[in-house]
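During the no-cost extension, the postdoctoral fellow (Dr. R.K.) reprocessed legacy sequence entries with the updated structure-token encoder. One reprocessed record is reproduced below for audit purposes.
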Amino acid sequence: MINKKFSFLLLFLTLTFALIKTAYCVDDEQTWNLMDLDDQVASALGVSTFIGGLIIAAVLLLMVLLPLGYLYSGTNKNPTYPCVISGFVVLTICTALTWIPWWLLVLTSVTVGLLFAGSIRNMISGKGGE
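Re-encoded structure tokens follow.
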């Protein structure tokens, strides 16, 4: 069961992204243009396009990773691998939509690879997964 204070946070993030998408994603011709969402969010907030893309990516990551983490919190299972895989899927989608640059995905991949290198080495050598 999800804690009540976290369910309000999840509801807030969902509504925030839905309102951002509704307010800034429609062009003058009333067509959806997701490719320019980072430009429109950045101009609305008065920041650079890079920061606008990071804000959108952070909101999407929180919308995916928070429920996944809380889904696994009531069990004895480790949520690390599903969270990492889901995070990479979201970052790949954000990169494909050009909201974040490609080198940010590469940098994240190298960092996560270095973090998990020891546990993968131990699993391959037979010393266990930890």
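The chain has a mean pLDDT of 79. DSSP finds five helices and no strands in the chain. The remaining legacy entries will be reprocessed before the final report is submitted.
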